[in-house]
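Weekly structure sync - notes
Attendees: PM, LS, DV (DV joined late)
Agenda: review two folding runs queued last week.

Item 1: First target. Sequence and structure tokens pasted below for the record.
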Amino acid sequence: MNIVTGIVVYVIAWWLVLLMVLPWGVRPLEDPKPGEERGAPEAPRIWLKVLVTTGIATAIWIAIYFFIEANLFSFREHALP
């Protein structure tokens, strides 16, 4: 895996994990004030979710990297000639 492929795989994994982590622990406002959206989260904790996302995406990227480097599966062997 070259550097560009590694970065692309990491970015895709990071965004997919972020979209899965964002709903964790979201609770709507109990008593919204005038002008506040009812569905807005009370405490979104975005930076915690970014850190969790980075850790999970890094673990996924490492697993993908070793899977590719160990040559456990080759897409080129299964591609049509």
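Item 2: Second target, run right after the first with the same settings.
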Amino acid sequence: MSDRSEHSISRRTALSGLIGGAGALAFRSDGQDSDGQGQNVERPEDTTRVPGEPARPIGQRSPFETPHRIVSTSPGGVSRSPLQDFRGIITPSDLHYERHHAGIPAIDPSRYSLLIHGMVERPTVFTLDDLKRFPSVSRVHFLECSGNGSPGLRGAPPANRTPQEIDGLVSTSEWTGVPLATLFNEVGVRANASWFLAEGMDAGAMGRSIPLEKGWDDALIAYGQNGEAIRPEQGYPARLLVPGYEGSANVKWIRRMELSDQPFMTRNETSKYTDPLKGERTRMFSLVMDAKSLITYPSFPVRLNERGWHGITGVAWSGRGRIARVEISVDRGETWRDALLQEPILSKCFTRFQLMWQWQGETTVLMSRATDETGYVQPTAAALREARGVGTRYHYNHIRAWTVSQDGTVEFGVRV
């Protein structure tokens, strides 16, 4: 008993000793340690007390953060969003992807108008002020070009592709505007109407046929994006938003909507946005974007510098509704594990996923596979080719793969 008491230290005594030692170190001002042996302690420079720059009218990113879009030289204009640089589900407005067929028009909002006519009781022209007088809603949804993600479907894709270069034609924003159902009620839709034409005021006169039921469901005439006016490249001053539909159906700079009892067969839904299938058939009005997922870390050009635990992260989305499940394989698809879905999980919106993985230095292949709330499962590239054929030009939602080599380098595609 006596031996135990000699070597035992009470919790109160231990805490007081720690506090006393910490206090002694904290109040030394001569650069010596507590024993006075003259061991110098280098103090880090305190830069927080140096006066910084004054406030600016428009906020800017830190100079240490340099995300940017990749801009293509193709006609009209294409820019890809840096998916690997994002942390949440919202894409900053200035990094939202772009796809134009005839450049970006400069439209004076005071001269803007939207005509709704055709099979309606009261053909009406709405100004921008008219649209803003109606009760507004805000919804978070993705937009995706139907040609997004083509690398890998035909032949072996280049290894040096980043997530931005593979799938950068997709972004998510908070959109604000008036429900199209409100405007339909205002003009009085006739009972036999079943389609409407959406036409833009850009030089390309983009026109797409949309099922009327979609307009009644969740379509918007949007004039706000991420808390501000829509950017010019996103359709300023107003655009059609049909959540979950391919990007070109979300007509920008919307100027006219005509209701009818049949689709309009515009050049943008006959010569384009239409796929040849096997047996001399054609796939038309494939408007809904299928479930898809993409690992954004680790991805090219990342290099894993050490073995051990690493967090696999990425995003998933579906035009049919919410993401219900994301599975990850770390062995080229032989086995799959459920990833953790990060809240919020919203309909027709990015959902972020994550999974901890212990890398032992082996060469392996990482894959992700999404399932949406309808039960639709993201297919392999082979399954997509079998269903759609090699002539398809749109809706590339096959499973993506990243090869991790023994030296830690990460490349796009299956390399083993």
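Discussion on item 2: The chain has a mean pLDDT of 89.
Action: LS to circulate a short write-up before next sync.
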